[in-house]
Amino acid sequence: MEGSRSRLLKFKTYFSYAVGQIQDGIPYNFINYYLLLFMTDMAGLNPAVAGTILFIAVIWDGITDPAVGYISDNLRGGRGKRRPFILGAAIPVLLCMLLLFAPFELPEWLKFPYYLVATLLFWTSYTCYSIPFNSFGAEIVTDTNERNNMKTICGFFLYFGVWLATAGPQFIQSITAGMGISEKTTWFYAALFMGLIGTLAAFLCWFMTKGVEKTQIKEELPENRRGLGEAIKNVYASYKLLLKTKSVRIICLMALVYNTFFAVKATGFVYLMANNLTLDSAMQALFWTIAAVLNYAVLPVLNLIANKLSKKTTFILMWALMIAFALIFAVVQISSFAVLVGYQVIFAFANVCFWVIGYSLAYDCVEVVEFQHGENKSGGIVGLFTLCQKVGYAIGGWMAGAGLTIIGYDAAVEVQSGKVLIGINTLMTAVPAVILLIGLILMIRFPINRIKHRKLLAALERKKKGEEYSTEGFEDIF
């Protein structure tokens, strides 16, 4: 009876937290998949210029990640370190999405600065939500398999957000097609609709997790934490310290590589459906719905594999499979809707692996750092992890924009040349495969596994109690 009650309470906690994953999933994927397309085809920006905007903005966002992580780790005041950010960042994220997809026409000289500033504001507000939210998850549970279970529940909400972000615009366009509403205005309605759902999810997460987060009473800051200059020094010192840990370095580099892969492939997906396969909005919406179903089907399978084998082994298997099939499709060419769905099946395993199990691996690094330095730095670790994601996305976005320019993509023409179509196919198959191979090599070198982590937790507990402990069997994770 007690076991059943404990499992129910655990599920309730995981569920309350996981609802907030919708707000993490919608903005990130909506921007990743469609902002470049909107800027080139709706706003009239050159693809290379639009790619440069994404690169600059996300690099800026990467700079703010460590700052938000540091502030979140050190916030005091009795209301938690993470939940105040979850509540406070929700509305700004919505407003920035509306600014980016606003339907008004801009003069040519204003387009670059406008979209650059709007994108900078978006990523800053998104960071203020995403890093504290994901850091919160590391504090809810410490067992490595339970972290898999919690992130799997999160995955169901995450991929609901992904489905809305990808299929939502196409559904809305199919509805408004006969209403005389411009395509540009339809994108604004899509941003409004999905942004409101994400905001509601953030509010629900904040409300339902009341009492879950351990709060710290407000206290006077030590001398070395006063003033902007000292704060910047402390942020730098904190991240320099984190990067001395081998497991943290590898997981962060892996995140950078994966998101470079993701950005290039995501761009290729959107352009391939519109140009190579000439799918209308209804068929594109159908594809994204199928993709969402595949993600849901993959979630429990990967969770089972990761719990039975290991997270690291699961990564290696899934990414090796993705690389092999991407290279096959580079030769075969994605020439039909059915082939595209087949490619998405393989991608679902690789993608879910990163977004669910990848965060669980990052959480495992929290205890490594705590053992070394005596402090829980989950905000710092998640900040570094997401910084590398966004640097990777910036690199991938720039590569995608530059790639489209190199292959001769022209948004003004109705039908692209055969050379351009082959280039688009290459952009979502062969190029991402080469990038992901680097990530696979990094993952092979990742030192933490289930046995080592459990030994670490036991040693950490003894260390906290002032008892004797040993690092035998897990010394290489540092």
TrEMBL record:
Membrane-spanning intervals of the chain: 43-63, 84-102, 114-132, 153-172, 187-208, 250-273, 285-305, 317-339, 345-366, 420-444
Molecular function via GO: symporter activity
Subcellular location: Cell membrane
Pfam families: MFS_2
InterPro entries reported for this sequence: MFS_2, MFS_trans_sf, Na/Gal_symport_CS
Lineage: superkingdom: Bacteria
GO BP annotations, alphabetical order: carbohydrate transport; sodium ion transport
Lineage: Bacteria, Bacillati, Bacillota, Clostridia, Peptostreptococcales
Presence of the UniProt keyword Transmembrane helix in the record: yes
GO CC, alphabetical: plasma membrane
Keywords for this protein: Cell membrane, Membrane, Transmembrane, Transmembrane helix, Transport
Membrane topology, record value: Multi-pass membrane protein
Protein name: MFS transporter
Naturally occurring in which organism (per UniProt): Hominibacterium faecale
Record-linked SUPFAM superfamilies: MFS general substrate transporter
